[in-house]
Amino acid sequence: MKAEVAGHGWVTLLYKELLRFWKVSFQTVAAPILTALLYLLIFSHVLEGRVSVYDGRVSYTAFLVPGLVMMSVLQNAFANSSSSLIQSKITGNLIFVLLPPLSATDLFAAYVLGAMVRGIVVGAGVFAVTPLFAPSLLAMPHPFWALAFALAGSAILAMLGLLAGIWADKFDQLAAFQNFIIVPLTFLSGVFYSIHSLPPFWQALSHFNPFFYMIDGFRYGFFGVSDVAPGVSLGIVAAAAGVLAALTLTLLARGWKLRA
Fold this sequence. Notes:
Layout: H1 2-22, H2 25-47, H3 60-91, H4 95-98, H5 104-129, H6 143-167, H7 171-187, H8 200-206, H9 210-223, H10 230-254
């Protein structure tokens, strides 16, 4: 019986994570989609015809859509895992997650997959409404590249959310992690602009932002052009995912700031 629970208990925890965000989907899914749509309406109206990307081969509105889709995926994957863990810590019900014979791998799989599902669902929702503004995006030349970066990016942000939830003891600390690390890295990753529009120093600095490679590689799936070769971007993203997975699993196994 214990072996069965240890082998499949993570599925129950994953189900709980999915229910947690789906029960309030108006807030966790619909609201982020509306926010992305507002970004699209405002920026496309103001900057269409004023900003040239990829030497004019792609309209600014079309360029903006994949960035907004990926930004939604990343931010919501982070929000799901981080908020779930910090809420459990503060309300005191984390003990009910730690008491069952779940391994660190079980906890990792449930929280990360749950966060990935939310990120992908929100990103798909954003993409579903954007063809009204850029119908050409439906003819994706490399859809599997886009899918690979969406999955890898959502996994990375889910792990960052877990790390933030493990580290934080209160909502203020979690908000600081998001506002001073996640949001700046996301907005400075090229969501709203091509890095070729930046001065040389800021172009070089952008290459140290791992979020840039997620956004740029995801865009490649839509246009077949990118600032960095997609294989290089995917390699960097995969390496970052490996490091974060090892760190997260280590902290979960030790129960750092989770077990009294």
